[in-house]
Amino acid sequence: MSAALFALSACSSTSTTTTHGLETVTAGKLTIATGQPAYSPWVIDNKPQTGKGFEAAIAYAVAKQLGFSKSEVTWVRTGFDAAIAPGPKDFDFNLQQFSITDKRKKAVDFSSAYYTTTQAIVAFKDTPVASATSTADLKKYKIGVPAGTTSYDVLIKDVGGTPAVYNSEDDAVQALKSKQIDAIAVDLPAAFYITSAQLKNATVVGHFSDTAGGDDYGLVLAKNSPETKKVTAAVDALRADGTLAALQKKWLSDTVHVPTFK
Q1: What is the per-residue burial (b if ≥16 Cβ within 10 Å, else e) of 52-67?
Q2: Going by C-beta distance under 8 Å and a sequence separation of 6 or more, which residues neighbour residue 159?
């Protein structure tokens, strides 16, 4: 996810207190951070406290797994870059589509992944490709893709043919706007951003089930946090009992009407 989407802000605290067996930054509370603003479908209406939206729901599910009630959760906002910069944090964990990378691990801790990105198709609502429901349907259309991306690999594997390759995601978007192509393939988070902020009357037609090569999103904690293992265990438990999959289906498929291509 591009850091440019988020304004930079930061404040920090070094004090902790023990709550439900965790060293929390605020007595009696689990402090969770997200972006300002936080976008749908990750957080609905920029109100994480409602628990509506994929990441807001994930946050409360993790909190419950750690022993915190909803009333014991408090929210703060951070810039994207500030959250993954070295130094103390004013949150217990942070989630705003942070891809887990080795470079970032030098400055912060990550939980295990709560989501792995899939690839999606974006098109204008009033075009035939917008009705595609299967990979066979997609074979009829000219699809653009940024060079060297997982989207390209998935198109070759699942759709076949020869995609129109562009130097960047922005170039592919411009090609779609100028009707040089029928659709573009990008990862699902980018598809949500493109259809909400870059293209009017565009839709996410659907996404592929294949997660190979996708980015893993993790909860961010302060570097060498004593709670990283506990938070990871909470995420792992939610994956094992099907909660993560259920929340992904609810907020990233059903609520925003993004089906999986057959």
Answers
A1: bbbbbbbbbbbbbbbe
A2: 135, 138, 139, 143
**pLDDT, position 228:** 97
Exposed / middle / buried, residue 74 (Cβ in 10 Å: 0-12, 13-18, 19+) = middle
Which of 65, 12, 77, 6 has the alpha carbon at shortest distance from 227?
65
Q: What secondary structure letter does DSSP report for 133?
A: -
Residue 7 confidence (pLDDT): 33
Measured distance CA(234)–CA(15) in Å, rounded: 23
* Residue closest to 78 by CA, chosen among 115, 30, 36: 36
Position 14 scores a pLDDT of 46
**Whole-model pTM?**
0.84
Count of CB atoms situated within 10 Å of the CB of 163: 22
Are 219 and 114 a contacting pair, CB within 8 Å?
A: yes
Q: Which two tokens stand for residue 34?
A: 């997200």
Cross-sheet strand order for the sheet of 164-166: 164-166, 143-146, 183-187, 119-124, 202-207
Q: Which two tokens stand for residue 136?
A: 């066979």
- The residue with greater pLDDT, 11 or 90, is 90
More reliable by pLDDT, 256 or 33: 33
- The whole-angstrom separation of Cα 247 and Cα 231 is 18
- Give me the DSSP letters along 5-51: GS----------EEETTEEESBTTBEEEEE-SS--TTTSGGG-GGGT
Residue 114's identity, in one-letter code, is: Y
